[in-house]
Amino acid sequence: MRLLSRKKLREVRAIIALGITLTLVIAGTQFADGQTRQLLARLDLLLYDLRFKLVLPYLQPPPPAQRIVIIDIDERSLKEVGHWPWSRKTVAELVDRLAAAGVVSVTFDVVFSEPERNMADQLAAAPEAGAIAAALGELAPRFDYDRRMADSIGKIDVTLGYILHRENFHSGDLPPTNIIMAPELVRRSFIDNHPGHTANIPVLQQAVRGQGFINGPPDPDGIVRRAPLVLRHGDQLYPSLALQTAMTYLLLDTVEPAVVEVNGDVYLQSIMLGDKLVHTDQKGQMLVPYRGHQGSFQYVPAVDVLAGKADPELLAGSIAMVGTSAIGLVDLRTTPVGAMFPGIETQATVVDALLRGDAPYKPDFAEGMSVVGILALGLLLSLAMPLLGPALMTLLGVGGTALVAATNVWLWQVKGLDIPVAGPLLTVLVLYVSNISFGFFTASRQKDFIQGMFGQYVAPGHIERLLDDPAALSFDGESKRMTVLFSDIRSFTNMSETLSAVELKQLLNRYFTPMTEIIFAQQGTIDKYVGDMIMAFWGAPLDDPQHERHAVLAALLMQRKQAAMREEFRRDGLPEIHTGIGINTGPMNVGDMGSSYRRAYTVLGDAVNLGSRLESITKFYGAAILVSESTYAAVQEDFVWREVDYMQVKGKKEPIRVYEPLALAEEADEALLRELEQYRLAREAYLARQWQEAHTLFAALAAEAPGFRKLCTIYLERIQQYRHEQLPPDWCGVWQHTEK
Questions:
Q1: d(Cα 281, Cα 288) in Å, to the nearest integer?
Q2: Are residues 253 and 306 in the same domain?
Q3: How far apart are CA 435 and CA 431, in angstroms?
Q4: Which residue stretches of 273-420 are H helix?
Q5: 650: helix, coil or strand?
């Protein structure tokens, strides 16, 4: 395992280094400018919206600090009262009804920038008025509905809206500002400047408690996520309609924003409303903490208020905010909680957050916290993912994503902090994809290597098993119990002398191909072809618990195939092929061995050498296959055997018993079993030194069974020799071979 471990370690180090590098790159983008920054900001905005959509349905919004009721100029109100703008008389009646119901204050998300025409003045000015002109002039004050509205809004705390323009356009006069901030600081701030304005008519301005701007730019993608609490107009700051509504309710005449100066620049940080601290960004904007989809506040149709049908208990003690949800009046916005969201409900949401004093905000350390999260996640995932498989890696990636999302939601919901989440999520995604991709390419490279390494040596099915489980593959040198097979063509030298080089090549190809197919079918591995010799083994590169059986069965099938091929070769005028096969089982060293110039996956060891010796002495016994006793012991019940000899090969001190498999146990016929029984009796007599009985039995078997003739002849010759020798008392029939 040592070589593979080093290789795996190099791969792990490489992907860890890649992961850390990617983490640092992602962390660096948090401080980038230009297009990269814009892309990350856009992604953060999308995730910001997604958080609302996923979380709001499952969270109970906090109770409002004060009941806020939206007086809705809806489609039904427009149909029954008339198209907008309504007469100031109608608006005055609406205010009177609200005051009578006990509302605390009324806010209009409307600008009354033009005076309403007085019917009496218009009629008196007409040429047709004639003598009644003077009388109409006396009636004019009764039709002064602007004054009528001013009288009504002067009896209750009312907040009106006006518009600040980016264009240098002026209509009316703005009221004095109630935001205290030195002009020199205003000029050096980052608050958006709006040089133009559209104000309410003077008579209404003089009657109301406060006024605030109703406009505010959405984010670059057109979605309203932030609400400016102040905007710059010249050298002064002016409050928003929501901020002024909160100030009116809290009886605050002025507010002074908290600022910080850095290198000559002025950054707005917060606004103090009584004992409520409201955080803002450097432009004086606050995040709108939407409470849900449209309808999170109670809506009351304006026509119901005018008709006296509104629930007095609902209105009593509330802040009434007058606005519209009608499509035709174009006050619908796109928000994170839905499109076509009434602007008046956004205003109500901001007022509620200001009064509660817990509006979420993006702190100064948000980017730093995001970078810390990126580095922590990146380091953890970079170290962990290369050690995991695809399933666990995916589980870790999903878990990391869930952890980031849950932490972000917790910070938003519990701590009121808006922390950028795109960077940490991007870190998880990039590291997951890079690790999965690295694993895919590594697996592909490993598969190509396995196919290149073993494609010519093991069966396709074996290759598939290796590809399905590369971890089972090892090129390292290891010692394990395996089975080896040697097959050699007999009299190959004489054969090669009678054939041309081309004919010899063709003959060997015709022979090797079916033999290899048989070995592959029995899950064997081809070690090598050397001339006419085939060397194969079982038990590597994948474990094979039945390696002994597969090897013996392969040998029988090879001999059976050769018998069929001999008839083909005779018809083609080619020499017949007879082979001897030796099989042994034992401990062997297997691995990728060789030099730096040439290497091979092979087996070595004493057990391998014995297999080769068994093959070489098959011709001595006239046996097609010789199997060692270690192989025989593992599969003796599966085949029909004859014990060939108890012998000592040259170079070995310990004698071994060798066997020849003749057929599968279920395929043996009665004739073969009778011959084997006679052979067993003859050999028992031989080992008991009953020479005459053994001679008679061997001679009879040699005459009756051609397949036993060669082996019987060997024993008859030994009997003839032993009859004239004085054998030692411990003689047990061991035959010592003097040649390899």
A1: 12
A2: yes
A3: 6
A4: 302-306, 312-315, 343-356, 366-384, 390-413
A5: coil
- Give the per-residue pLDDT at 2: 40
Same domain, 438 and 578: no
| Cis peptide leading into residue 64 (ω within 30°) | no
In contact, 379 and 23? CB cutoff 8 Å: yes
Q: Which two tokens stand for residue 108?
A: 């209009």
Q: How many CB atoms lie within 10 A of CB 587?
A: 13
Question: Which residues are CB-neighbours of 263 under 8 A, at least 6 positions away?
Answer: none
Does 685 lie in the same domain as 663? no
Token pair in block for residue 460: 């396709």
User: Pick from 578, 669, 683, 569: which is nearest to 624 by CA?
Assistant: 578
From the list 353, 357, 351, the residue with the least C-alpha distance to 320 is: 351
Which residues in the chain show pLDDT less than 50? 1-4, 472, 474-475
Maximal CA-CA distance, the chain: 173
Computed over every residue of the chain, the mean pLDDT equals 89
Burial class of residue 437 (count of CB atoms within 10 Å of its CB; 0-12, 13-18, 19+): exposed
Residues of the domain holding 554 = 474-668
Q: Residue 134: in which H helix or E strand, if any?
A: helix 133-139
Tell me if 468 is assigned to some domain. no
Please check whether residues 605 and 544 belong to one and the same domain. yes
pLDDT the model gives residue 646: 95
Please state, in angstroms and rounded to a whole number, the distance separating the CA atoms of residues 26 and 424: 9
Cα distances (angstroms) measured from residue 89 to each of 77, 157, 306 = 16, 18, 11
76 exposure class (CB count in 10 Å sphere: 0-12, 13-18, 19+): middle
Encode pLDDT of 464-494 as tens digits: 655 565 554 544 568 999 999 999 999 888 8
**Same domain (yes/no): 534, 433:** no
Strands 276-279 and 265-273: antiparallel
**Number of domains the chain is built from:** 4
| Residue type at position 382 | S
State how far the Cα of 179 lies from the Cα of 176, in Å rounded to an integer. Answer: 9
pTM of the complete model: 0.63
Taking a C-beta distance cutoff of 8 angstroms, is the pair 247, 255 a contact?
A: yes
Write down how long the chain is.
740
Contact between 673 and 647 under an 8 Å Cβ cutoff? The reply is no
288 within 8 A of 352, measured Cβ to Cβ? no
